[in-house]
Amino acid sequence: MILSRGPKLCNFLEWRGLKVVYKRYASLYFCMCVDADDNELETLEIIHHFVEILDRYFGNVCELDLIFNFHKAYYILDEVLIAGELQETSKKSVARVIAAQDTLIEHAKEQSNSLSNIIAQATK
Amino acid sequence: MALSGMRGLSVFISDVRNCQNKEQERVRVDKELANIRTRFKNERGLSVYEKKKYVWKMLYIYMLGYDVDFGHMETVQLISAPKYAEKQVGYIVTSCLLNENHDFLRLVINTVRNDIIGRNETFQCLALTMVGNVGGREFSESLAPDVQKLLISNSCRPLVRKKAALCLLRLYRKNPDVVNVDGWSERMVQLLDERDLGVLTAVMSLLVALVANTPHAYWNCVPKCVRTLERLTRGQDIPQEYTYYGIPSPWLQVKTMRVLQYFPKIDDPTIRKSLLDVLQRILLGTDVVKNVNKNNASHAVLFEALALVMHLDADKEMMSQCVVLLGKFISVREPNIRYLGLENMTRILLVADVADSIKKHQSQIITSLKDPDISIRRRSLDLLYGMCDVSNAKDIVEELLQYLTTADFGIREELALKAAILSEKFAPDLSWYVDVILQLIEKAGDFVSDDIWYRVVQFVTNNDDLQVHAAAKALDYLDKPAVHETMVKVSGYILGEYSHLLARRPGCSPRDIFHILNDKFPAVTTPTKALLLSACVKIMMHCQPPDPELVDQVVAVFRRYESSVDAEVQQRAVEFLALARKGTAFVDIMAEMPKFPERQSPLLKKAEDTDGDASEVSATKIRQQQMQQEQNSTALVVADPQPANGGLHPVSVPKTAAPARHSEQAVTSETPQDSKSFPPSQSQAHSNGGTPQQAPGHTPGSASADLLSDLVGPLSLEAPPPVASTSSSDLLALEAPPTPTAAAATPADSLALALLDSAPTQVQPLGNVSEWFKELTLKDSGVLYEDPYVQIGLKAEWRNAQGRIVLFVGNKHTGPLTNVKSSVLPPPHLRMQSAVVPENIPPRAQVQVPVDVACLSASRETAVLEFSFNVGHAPVSVQLKLPTSLNKFLQVAPVSANEFVARWRALGGPPSKLQEVVRGVRPMPLAEMANLFIRLHIGVANGLDPNVNNVVAATTFYSGTAATLCLVRVETDPSDRTQMRLTVASEDPNTTYELKEFIKEQVMDIPFPGQSPQAATVTPATIPLTGPAAALAGLI
């Protein structure tokens, strides 16, 4: 439905009593489905906000970044939206949280690496 | 950024991406699923790393659209893992793969709870996010208190608190009971002082949901919201990171304004003023800028401000300012703004009296109807539909018709329906209406439902001066090549009935017309063939003097279909053939169809129905309902908002009233109009002078069926049969009528009379009034009465000897109810005071009528409500029993065994203690009887009586200032449940007697005559729902 729409049309599409708000970035489409009386432009800018955060995180985000790091995209989305509602509007704050998460995971990995090193050495 | 070294996953993703086609992809995915499955089976050897990897793979496969129906256990187990990295994977994949009803979620509730109340902030975040995204009812019940604690905790970081706010929002949506309204509103006020804008945004989202449900509980938040909005719009004290393209958090602004829209109205003059000032600034201070995002964000705020202005019902000046703005928007190039401009124009039309200023933009709106974007076209269609009235109907409908030829299929059906509705609603004259519909059929026949052409036939039949015009038009259209089948039907029908009126015009001789019809036979479906056969026989019969050549040709047609495989066609052909042989003797049977009884337009009804569906969710509707709940102090009229897509405006276009109704007038003038006691069913029949819109929807419930039957009717000869399938029986009846011409003429003459007498116009309650009353005896809210026009709901509260009943009188109808009167007739033992009902109830509005009740003594009599109203000109009046039954003044009395026995003994015998063996009891198990007693507020004291077949109960009866303890004992016979011995004792003989009788009534199968809890009948005993057709069939 969205794909068949030309470039100069509006970003809203009525669908089964709901509205689909979408935005295209190169070959990627981001869509959100909202109630008929929700604020469409607000939703549109939530999409853009999310994309800006992705962009900042991945550094010029592209399709491949998202495909191979789909789980990262999920983390970030979880920091932006919960229960369909906007959680954080500050890009900085989101970036901080994600960075903190990354360190935690790295940290855990190092730990397990060092552990397995120790085990490996011990079993030698 | 590599996938944290998860090579296996990257390889898999690359593999899938390298697949040439869907088939290869499926093979690759299936292979992977099989692999994961076997690995999970031998779980022993699985390292933590592998577990994570496989779970990610599952999610990826799920994302591709494949079913993943295993491995949920492994995923859920990761949540319980001690380390962050595993937990995170577990939580995220769980929230994607499982929905709220999944059984496995139950397994983790405890782990999740431990994470939430634990000290580890990162775990708290994970758990809150997951619950926020999938949390269902069970989560709600077990986690809500902990989440609330986190939200208001001072020691938590903003990061956790904002997640807690949204998590609570989710839980609240699943189960509103988790938030205790009383205590929580104060908390919300405190939370609105939050300095961290991230938390404030989340809190505002929560507030939107809370206020939407119970606005009156959160009044104290209004000033804070207004202040927040002021602060945001002024840009005071907003950290740089919370501005978006230079705008201070547009999202928070929008949310704050959204909250304010859920409050019914803001009365406090200072708050209102400062709010309007802020809005004014937004309205005037928003400019179109180059940057798309900035533009979007600022307009998001602007449109929300517009919505709030509409909601606040601001003064005229501000409203017209809004219209000017919207007028600007609908002509800009940017499609989003154009779309929203049109959408909001439709909305403002519904709340404010701005129709005239919007009409100035009509040409621009019509241009948008041709926009390349379907979304915009739809908005523009809706707006045109909404702004249409008598003054511009011609222009707008003609535009719609013109557009219909080029419109794409996505919108055609809607377009056709809307054009049909508008032309019916606002037709300056009926011939125009007929023209429009015929054009509509020509241009978009596929989208013109049968309802639409049936309606045309009704109008033409009922309006003599329309018939010539319609016949001429029908002939024009039918004479064209490649005519749509619907056109054949409507034209065939009209020509069959009225073509003889054209006979003097050139090219309109019966023979010409027959040839045109005859040409259509090969191309049409069987039902249409049947219709054409009827048309032919009518043309033949109307031809004066008889034309032998024409008769021969027509007979040839009948012969052709004499052996048709279709039973209906065959039967008609055979019967018409027989009629043709009898010659002119039967010309009266082929007379024009009698007039149809007025009825609600099925189109309008359809539009109404769809509106109902669509508006159920809309915030405006919710808001409106809230308003109604708010104002329960006195009777008040609240008109429902017009639904967004135009819906039904209360229209009054008396100009279209059809003048020709002699036969009906003749009949109706015989009956008195004024008497209120006159059976409503008959007096309703008087209301036929109105316009189509005003015509009350007689028996809307069966309108469509009626309609169908009436219109299939013409296919048979003289009478609309009750339902299509039985039409053949009527035809059979035709064969039998007595031969004398005179006899044949009489039924035809009496047709109109019969039709009116038995017109299905009585107002029937939609259910059993006495059942409703019975229900209400046992509970305190429910339906008291409902018919096609009115619904009376009831809600009652009782405390000791006092009570308050609130009647909710709703007009279900599309026209206003006028001359509404209600009076409460209290029995001697009750003192009652009722608010006054407004005289008129607008369409789809509800009025609340509080009634205060005080009980003075015990009696089984109940109060009666006399309620009357007019629909159109027809008075309807009902008498309803109000559930002020004895038990409403009872309260369960906890009595100890000793006390009971002592009392029981003290109350020796009659008249304080009465005993009776009751027969004819509705057989019920003891538990059910106990249950019934409890529902009647007669408390059952278990174990007091050693005999298990007995029920002992105690209750207190309140009257005036007195409270009388009543004791009840029921002894049942397990072998015969239809009888029992009932003993009632109290200090007051009258109370004892009345209570005993009351209990008797409640347990007996057949209530006492005269005491039956049945409301006075609403309708006299008229023929139950027979169509005119049935009555006619009886006549023949």
Automatic annotation (TrEMBL), chain A:
Residues 2-103 form the AP complex mu/sigma subunit domain. It comes from the Eukaryota. InterPro entries: AP1_sigma, AP_complex_ssu, AP_mu_sigma_su, Clathrin_sm-chain_CS, Longin-like_dom_sf. One of its GO terms (cellular component) is cytosol. The keyword Membrane applies. Keywords: Cytoplasmic vesicle, Golgi apparatus, Membrane, Protein transport, Transport. One of its GO terms (biological process) is intracellular protein transport. Pfam families: Clat_adaptor_s (PF01217). It is found in: Cytoplasmic vesicle, Clathrin-coated vesicle membrane; Golgi apparatus. One of its GO terms (molecular function) is clathrin adaptor activity. It is a peripheral membrane protein. Subunit of clathrin-associated adaptor protein complex 1 that plays a role in protein sorting at the trans-Golgi network and early endosomes (TGN/EE). The AP complexes mediate the recruitment of clathrin to membranes and the recognition of sorting signals within the cytosolic tails of transmembrane cargo molecules. Belongs to the adaptor complexes small subunit family. Adaptor protein complex 1 (AP-1) is a heterotetramer composed of two large adaptins (gamma-type subunit and beta-type subunit), a medium adaptin (mu-type subunit) and a small adaptin (sigma-type subunit). This is AP complex subunit sigma. It comes from Physcomitrium patens (Spreading-leaved earth moss).
UniProtKB/TrEMBL annotation, chain B:
PANTHER family: ADAPTIN, ALPHA/GAMMA/EPSILON. Adaptor protein complex 2 (AP-2) is a heterotetramer composed of two large adaptins (alpha-type and beta-type subunits), a medium adaptin (mu-type subunit) and a small adaptin (sigma-type subunit). SUPFAM superfamilies: ARM repeat (SSF48371), Clathrin adaptor appendage domain (SSF49348), Subdomain of clathrin and coatomer appendage domain (SSF55711). It comes from Physcomitrium patens. One of its GO terms (cellular component) is AP-2 adaptor complex. Keywords: Coated pit, Endocytosis, Membrane, Protein transport, Transport. GO terms for biological process: clathrin-dependent endocytosis; intracellular protein transport. A 1,2-diacyl-sn-glycero-3-phospho-(1D-myo-inositol-3,4,5-trisphosphate) binds at R7, G8, Y49, K53, Y54, V55, W56, K57. Residues 774-883 form the Clathrin adaptor alpha/beta/gamma-adaptin appendage Ig-like subdomain domain. Residues 600-707 are annotated as: Disordered. It is found in: Membrane, Coated pit. Residues 617-635, 665-696 have a biased composition (Polar residues). Gene3D superfamilies: 2.60.40.1230, Leucine-rich Repeat Variant (1.25.10.10), TATA-Binding Protein (3.30.310.10). Belongs to the adaptor complexes large subunit family. Pfam families: Adaptin_N, Alpha_adaptin_C, Alpha_adaptinC2. It comes from the Eukaryota. SMART domains: Alpha_adaptinC2 (SM00809). This is AP-2 complex subunit alpha. Subunit of the adaptor protein complex 2 (AP-2). Adaptor protein complexes function in protein transport via transport vesicles in different membrane traffic pathways. Adaptor protein complexes are vesicle coat components and appear to be involved in cargo selection and vesicle formation. AP-2 is involved in clathrin-dependent endocytosis in which cargo proteins are incorporated into vesicles surrounded by clathrin (clathrin-coated vesicles, CCVs) which are destined for fusion with the early endosome. The complex binds polyphosphoinositides. InterPro entries: Adaptor_Complx_Large_Subunit, AP2_complex_asu, ARM-like, ARM-type_fold, Clathrin/coatomer_adapt-like_N, Clathrin_a-adaptin_app_sub_C, Clathrin_a/b/g-adaptin_app_Ig, Clathrin_app_Ig-like_sf. GO terms for molecular function: clathrin adaptor activity. It is a peripheral membrane protein.
